[in-house]
What does this fold into?
Amino acid sequence: MYIPSIYKNENLEEVKEFIKQYGFGILISQVSGRPEGTHIPLQLEVDNNGNDILTGHISKSNPQWKNFNNTSEVLVIFNGPHSYVSSSWYEKEDAPTWNYMAVHVYGSISIIQGDALKNVLRKLVDTYEAASKCPVSVNSMSQETMEQIHGVVGFQIRINEIQAAYKLSQNKSEKDHNSIVKELENKDDYGAIKIAEEMSFRKSE
It folds into this structure.
């Protein structure tokens, strides 16, 4: 994606944590000559060779999986918080804008089956059940429930490139920066509040 240098985040470890936090991504690939996208949870892992990978699964009814092979490159988009920034918050007249955090991951995709797929499903459930009052586990699910595994296609994406854009008013004066943070903090909106937190945190680094 196009990222002005001032907004580019090249701290790989920080970006990996972003992917883990905002793991519900959009998987985009070519299907019959046109781009198709599926909204799915993905897990960032490391394979046996030390390569960063993403793992996940989609329904067999979804035709997107039929082009999953080692030669096809796919794009995964992870969206973080975002918010509109009004130009009325600036000291001097300027254009309004939008602050956001987003990561694009490019990689080669391949299908996984059998125990490898079961392991992916187990890790996914364990991750998101961790905060539940009564967490469930793939290991304790009935055979009938586990039969549903036949209705999905598992995959892994070997990551070739990660691009991260953190657009957080880095190009604004200190006075405008502080004003934007204050205005965002006062909005009744999760995205605005999280962007304000990120702006304040990075200013204090």
